[in-house]
Amino acid sequence: xxxxxxxxxxxxxxxxxxxxxxxxxxxxxxxxxxxxxxxxxxxxxxxxxxxxxxxxxxxxxxxxxxxxxxxxxxxxxxxxxxxxxxxxxxxxxxxxxxxxxxxxxxxxxxxxxxxxxxxxxxxxxxxxxxxxxxxxxxxxxxxxxxxxxxxxxxxxxxxxxxxxxxxxxxxxxxxxxxxxxxxxxxxxxxxxxxxxxxxxxxxxxxxxx
Length: 209
Fold this sequence. Notes:
With 209 residues, this protein is an all-alpha fold. The protein is built from 8 helices and no strands. Helix 2 packs antiparallel against helix 3.
């Protein structure tokens, strides 16, 4: 199925957010701004977000898109200054969830397995972001991740029918509603993230100097 005008518009919106982050990165490089490492991580994450949308929304290649989105959360993991043991914990939690699904007779497959790993890592990043101190741009990051997470909850609800036998009410009411409302969360989230900063990576650099 070919992508519609609305989907191309959404992809263009995210691409502009990625370009904004790249321009902010170049500005930090020219001014030798200490926020340069943080802006690099943000730019890389937003470029991969645009790549994920290209694969999933325009090309209908979900595996490739999920891999990009997983990489996005790994960049945010580093941006938030989270410890490697948190990554191991996220991996263990994802494995437990996947095993539980198998015991319940739900076969996730590669796509479902990637989605579980992604959402577990994302939930940890969101939790860390909500603990950020600092000023307005740190709050931009926290709010951006929060809206991004709400979007992904709607995406998950949209795809439940691929794994569970659900009543007609789901297909007629819930899935169309989630399909429409997710953009209300997704597009503003990327704008907030593109203008955000995260003082954790800057503080880590100062500690190592």
